[in-house]
# Entry
Amino acid sequence: VIKCVIWDIDNTLLDGVYLESPEQPPPPDPELLAVLRELSGRGILHALASRNPPEAARYVGAVTGTRFAAAECGWESKATAVRRISAELSLAPDALAFVDDDMIERAEVAAALPEVLVLTPEDAAESPAWPDFSPPVVTAEASRRADMYAARQRRQAEAATFGGSRDEFLRRAGTRIAIGRAEPADVPRLRELSVRTHQLNSGAPPLAEAELAALIADPARLVATVGLTDSYGDDGIVGCSVMERNGACSWPVPVLMMSCRALGRGVLDALLGWLCRAAAAAGGTALTVPCLVTDRNVPMRLALAAAGLRAAPGAVDAGGRAQFSRSLDGPLPAVPDWLSGWDGAQ
Amino acid sequence: VSLQAELAQLLAEVTGHPELAELPPDVSLFGGEAGLDSLAGTMLLRQVHRRYGVDVAAEDLNLDALADLGTLAAFIEARR
# Structure
């Protein structure tokens, strides 16, 4: 049972970034403000962990009307902040939840403290319905989500103590990545991915359901879905790519996006390997991914670099995008043998 | 302790694989032995930024500095 929720401030409890407008800082996120109040009413404590000056904590306390039991503001890692709060409040890590919009911060905390329940702001908005936060009434939907997070906790805890390489762990966990040809029924999930993913998104603007349906129906495009499951649990569709057929030229990939649920499980790397193979098999000579260059999607750029894609140095256009490309001659990036499904043929 | 050895230590921490603290400076970080993925890579870059004040992601569009520990150390050395 969770006894304390540790909150990030920027783009989590606040609807914006504190230091971007210290004269008039952003207001609290209304949905999470309601969660703060609801959980307080159940006797759950709140704490803050933020890369901000201490004034930010005072501001958040005042603007949310919440007494925070502890506040760690500074420039150290969030894992360090969570450890300090755990010691200060004498609460074991398994009685703590940590909420942050940044998936790398979440990954750091999850890696350093696998017992802590690590949540996105979207998860936190649903948390009052989960058994960990409210022993009595539980809906079927909420318990499915809770099962998924429990599966994630178990996977993380076992990965942390597993001696071998990441791929050996993925194999032992029975990881299966299934590439599928997107169907009209997938549109709502793809819309969700398009709106919600940032750090593993090449930066296509959010796509409306009608646009996605049109892409799927267009024979000149390959729209692939990526399913992910293992012996701990089934994550369903976690990713999507759109690739344009382009004969014996470079095949563009205008849409590439992946849920942070897939993070650290080799799924984006596998999808890039699959895209290279599907394009090469149909006569494509190169693969090009236009990617927004920001400090948010560094994980996407790392995956592109790992798959051998490069942009011309300094070639970032006025829209902040660079064209990352690689030849499809010679050896292609590896795909794991647990990837299966559609081969990209029409 | 040399910068390369410090970076190997950081790599071991972010990947959770203590044996990588002994990784030779010319072994490729992507794929193979080191198996740096986008998660561990981003954590490594954040630690580098925190510790040495060098924002590799902002300065190196293609992230070629992450080819191996030797190239990463040279990149940091040239900027701090």
Observations:
- Chain A has a mean pLDDT of 90.
